[in-house]
């Protein structure tokens, strides 16, 4: 095994493996270190990919129950095989991890299994149970160790009845009911999965809105949609305690009037966010520093206090998103290579894969109000879209926020069918400073969901709507 490299990447999630590939492409002798026996990190194994697999499966089941009859499709005696429901997810994960293995081999990247710890700024030791320690040197290191589920100070995730999203993806049997603490992205996606297959779901959220970091109009609309699907949503509620009773859990919480209530459900899923993972990295043997939230401090080049050590992804500040980590991985490697890469953090889209999907990029309305910036809004409902009506997907809207003087698009917020795909057009427009008028004057295929974006841009420009 090689022990001396140009670049060593620690962590094989989306940021890590993409950074390793880019390093190899640029001619660097590269190693990728992963403590688990499979590559891909949280996203591929217990995050983005398996969650989307279950979301798609549950969506098919829900549509068969609620929409097929309207399409003339008879589906009597419909039932869900929960074991196969989970097995399909496992197969999807295996296909993706196999793909990453292929990419590592193709790009001649040395993959080393074990836990890495810095001995100094040029040397690490990799430890694996049952094997001898390996000392590895490199000119540069990229720390891409990601994050792990966070909890509340008074709640212990025991992984049995009080679970995180990781355990929720691999339950042995379908719960009759479930309480989810947290109405952010992870919470509402998990609520969608289980509510659509018949589990009674209750969301308890501390903030006064679902997906509270996104535009408030999106949270309001999503609450209406999830409520119609049978999800109980308690906003402005504070969880006091969670007890594992053996066969179920009891959650005590207070409302904004400090009135205490409790609920007992089969499982309690804690979805209050994630925290950076730096345990055991040996950063104390370098000059790398952490901030008050445990994130690695970097400059605008993603470089730590130790100039040859970079950090990317969930372990540094910014949104914990796989695509953000990927962009940072490429950015760090190209910076090391002497290039001048560019990243605009304001134009990293956020997506929630409920159905309908939610997607957002740029400023929210509340942010513009806070900063006393003038703005204009164009809002177009999918209920007025011919394509959406044809597909029985008329919930939601496109909201475009633009500058009233120059027409610069400041933010795009979508809740509706294929919002995750539609947002890309918004990102392109904003990256190249296309105006709201420019956006509606280009030709959109008819009938498509994207026409809702065209109409919202037309309305934001102050010129009304064509009413498709």
Please describe the structure with a list of short key phrases separated by commas or semicolons.
13 helices; alpha/beta; 22 strands; single chain; five-stranded parallel sheet; 468 residues
Task: Describe the fold and architecture.
The chain is α/β, with parallel strands linked by helices and 468 residues long. 31% of the residues lie in helices and 24% in strands. It has 13 helices and 22 strands. The protein has helices at 14-25, 41-46, 48-66, 82-106, 165-168, 185-196, 216-228, 322-336, 365-370, 386-390, 419-431, 436-441, 451-460, and strands spanning 4-10, 30-34, 110-113, 115-118, 123-127, 134-143, 147-149, 162-163, 177-181, 200-204, 232-234, 238-244, 249-254, 260-265, 267-270, 274-276, 309-311, 350-352, 357-362, 376-381, 397-402, 409-416. Strand 9, helix 6 and strand 10 (200-204) form a beta-alpha-beta unit.
Report Rg: 24 Å
The class by helix and strand makeup works out as alpha/beta
Average predicted local confidence, pLDDT? 97
The largest sheet is:
7 strands, mixed
| Low-pLDDT segments, ≥5 res | none
- In quaternary terms, these chains amount to single chain
Approximately how much beta-strand content do the residues carry?
15-25%
User: Which word captures the global form?
Assistant: globular
Summary of the model, kept short:
The protein is α/β, with parallel strands linked by helices. It has helices at residues 14-25, 41-46, 48-66, 82-106, 165-168, 185-196, 216-228, 322-336, 365-370, 386-390, 419-431, 436-441, 451-460; strands at 4-10, 30-34, 110-113, 115-118, 123-127, 134-143, 147-149, 162-163, 177-181, 200-204, 232-234, 238-244, 249-254, 260-265, 267-270, 274-276, 309-311, 350-352, 357-362, 376-381, 397-402, 409-416. Helices cover 31% and strands 24% of the residues.
